[in-house]
Structures are given as structure tokens and as C-alpha cells.
């Protein structure tokens, strides 16, 4: 494949990808999915325009097909890297990549205006392309241990670094050999260096395109898996997630040692909040209450939402007396922290039932005992902590 055919293939490939992204974004504009791909879509648009201009070299003025084309291409590479950083949760485009892009465009345009040989300009462009893809690879390992990354991420990091090195080496070696008027280094001729570099550039573009799409799919699947066990509103485990985390502690209760305590908490008269102020205010109240409770807990403690305004709290290696103290502390904190909404200040109270996991417990018997203590707290006037009675345990055993 000669260079002109490669440029045409890259231009048409990016154009077709841009068309697919356009229709995808129209369908997902209101779902929040399109925003995460906006930077990457802009990168593909820049690259489509740039490869098209480079293909038309000799037909259009050199200013468009050399200076402008490479500037737009650099912007596409920078946006590619920025899209990967945004996917990693950091927006580094304006702070880091935009200044680097400005320097790269300035250096290349200056080299063209000064009339430097094409080999030297190719070296500059190759180093810039390789540098931006190295920046994209860095986003894939940011804040993660190598062993903690998925196989896809590790493959993309290795592939992007290797291909970026080949692309940069192609430009630098070509410029060095041209300046020295040498046909090559032994068997490593200029033609072979050019072929390897062009192939590396093509593979780098393909790896980035398919890699980003696969990473987006991997991220979406991970989020779906997370939402199966996490409450989307309060960001604490939902019923399934809490039960999954509690199961090992029920098994450990059969061994001697410090017990694990369970607290069930229910906001008093929460239905009135939804009825009087609306569900958005009710959601605000729930999130505020979770924040208040978390401030009273240890890092090893776990809070989960069972449904509505009912929550469960697991206290590992905690005696019943200590759990009662924690529950009382939570009750006082909830009562002392009113929630400020747009049109009201809402005072809250909570009722809590407390028990510990026993050797004979199952999930059903444990929650039944704690829920009976919670119901007793409500019947006694609410805004109080009640310990599960030993009599309830005896009735369950019978």
C-alpha cells in the first residue's frame, strides 16, 4: 500500500466513523451517554479532515495540505489522548494537552515557514504523534496498579507505547539518515524504515479507535455490574449488595471471637417529606442522612439501603453494648442535623433496632430479630434505639 492509498483509507475510515458517531449521539443525546464520547468524536473529525487534506497535497495549496493539515492532525491526536484521560475521570485537556498542542503546532509551522527539509518536518510530526499517544497510554494506567488493570487495558498500554516508539523512531531515523546522506544502516534501509513507520502509524490509529470503543463498553458493563449491588441514589450497597457483604460474617459467627453487630435504621415519618415537599427533596434528605451516618462509622463498617427510608448498618467485631452506643450516636447526629431544602429546613429523627449475629443465625432470622427491635422502637414513640430482646431469639429457635 503506497502512502497516498493509506492517506485515503485513513480519511475515509475516520469519515465513516464520524457518521456512525453522529447518528449514535442523536439517539443517546438525552441519555447522558453522548457527553462522554464528545471529545473522542471531535478527535475523529479532526483526523478525517487532516488525512483528507494530506491526501489532496499537490491539488490544493501547500499551506492547506502541509501546515494546516498537520496542525489539525496534531489537534486530533491531542483530543484522542484527552478522551482517554476524560474516560479515566480527569479533564487534562486545557491544563496540559492544550499548551503542548500549541507548542507542537508552533514548532512544525515554524519549520515549514523556515523551509526546513521534508525529512526534518516528518521527524517533528512523528515525535508529536508518538508523544500524544504516549500521553493517552498514561491515562490507561493512571491511579491503577499494573496488576489491577484489565487485560484489555494492559494490552492497549503496551501496544500504544510500542507503536508510538516505532512512529517516532521512523521520523528521527529518516531525518538522521537523510542529513548524513546515507542509504541506511546495513540491512535497515530508509525504505524499510518508512514502511515500518507507516505500518505502525496505521496500526496505532486502528488500536486507538477500536481500543477506545472497547474500553467504553468495558466501562459501561462495569457500571451495570456495580449498579446491581449499589443504590444509585445514595451510593451505598443496595439490599443485594448488603446481603452479599453480610454473608461471610454470618458464617464467621459460628467461630468464637468478637461478634458482629447489625443495626436497622428507619427515618421517622419520611413519607410526609415526600408528600409535603416532593420526591426530589426526599432524595436530598436520604443522601444527607447517609452522609450524617457515615461520619459516625468506622472505615470497616458498612451501610446499605434496604429500600425506601430503611437502612442497615453492619459493625464488624462489635459487641452489643458498643453497637448500642454507635446507634445512639447516629440517632443524636440525625436529630441534630436538619436538612436545608430550597423552601424549608427539615428536621429528621430516626428509629433504630440493634442486634448481634449469633451462631445459629441465618440472614432471615438475623433481619427478623433486628426488624422486631425496630418495630418496638417505632411503637414506643420513635426517635429511639431498641435492643433485640433475648426472648425474640428464643422464639425463633423454638
Helix content: 55-70%
- The spatial strand order of the largest sheet comes to 4-5-3-8-9
Order of helices and strands: HHHHHHEEHHEHHEEHEEEHEH
Q: What is the fold-level CATH name, i.e. the topology of the largest domain?
A: Rhopdopsin 7-helix transmembrane proteins
Mean pLDDT over the full residue set: 88
Largest sheet: 5 strands, mixed
Beta strand % = 5-15%
| Count of discrete domains | 2
End-to-end C-alpha gap = 82 Å
What is shown here, in short?
By secondary structure, the protein is α+β, with helices and mostly antiparallel strands. Helices cover 67% and strands 9% of the residues. A five-stranded mixed β-sheet has the order 4-5-3-8-9, sandwiched between helices. A two-stranded antiparallel ribbon has the order 1-2. A two-stranded antiparallel sheet has the order 6-7.
SSE layout and pairing:
Blueprint: H1 3-28, H2 34-55, H3 62-87, H4 93-113, H5 118-141, H6 151-179, E1 184-185, E2 188-189, H7 190-227, H8 239-252, E3 261-267, H9 270-277, H10 279-294, E4 302-307, E5 310-315, H11 320-335, E6 339-340, E7 345-346, E8 350-356, H12 363-379, E9 385-387, H13 390-397
Parallel strand pairs: 8-9
Antiparallel strand pairs: 1-2, 3-5, 3-8, 4-5, 6-7
Helix pairs in contact: 1-2, 2-3, 3-4, 3-5, 4-5, 5-6, 6-7, 9-10
